[in-house]
Amino acid sequence: MTQESSPGFNLTDEGLIQLLNRAIRNTAILGLVPAACIWFASGWRNAAMLLSGAAISTASIFEWKRLVGLINAKLDNQKTARMGVVAAILFVLRLGIFAGVIYVSLKCFKGSVLALFFGLSLAVVTLGWEALRLLRD
């Protein structure tokens, strides 16, 4: 299935991995640049909140990329038993760690909740942008 395309799109498995890599890069950039501007404009607390959300968004896309690799390996009938268990455990741990990061950000940084929300929404924004680029091509 590595060379087959999705129905309606000309997207291979490698193309999907490249799309997710671009989304990871763009999410990191969209987290760092506005955080630097916010730091100078309104202080380090709001910048830290934005960076916390952006870090969670970036890590989420990275985890989705791992899950795509697992699903593609399963569809290609490759061995995935150990990889599947590790991915499931890391998925559950990731949710707990991210909940902890959000809690600590809200309690310790005492910055704007809106900055945290903006950082958390960066994954949706960058993946939406990549989807629009895919539709355009």
Description of the structure:
The protein is mainly alpha-helical and 137 residues long. Helices cover 83% and strands 0% of the residues. It has 5 helices and no strands. The protein has helices spanning 13-42, 44-75, 81-109, 113-120, 122-136. Helix 1 runs antiparallel to helix 2 and helix 1 crosses helix 5. The longest helix is centred in the middle third of the chain and has 32 residues, at 44-75. The two termini are 22 Å apart.
Keywords:
single chain; 137 residues; mainly alpha; 5 helices; 83% helix; 0% strand; flat
Task: Give the topology.
Blueprint: H1 13-42, H2 44-75, H3 81-109, H4 113-120, H5 122-136
Helix pairs in contact: 1-2, 1-5, 2-3, 2-4
> What are the secondary-structure elements, in order, as H or E?
HHHHH
Total beta strand runs: 0
| Fraction of residues in H or I helices | over 70%
Radius of gyration: 17 Å
Count, helices = 5
Shape: flat
> What is the CA–CA distance across the termini?
22 Å
Mean pLDDT: 87
Number of domains: 1
Q: What fraction of the residues are assigned to beta strands by DSSP?
A: under 5%
Biggest pleated-sheet summary: none
Would you identify the regions where 5 or more consecutive residues have pLDDT less than 50? none
What is the structural class? mainly alpha
Task: Give a short synopsis of this structure.
This protein has 137 residues and is mainly alpha-helical. Helices cover 83% and strands 0% of the residues.
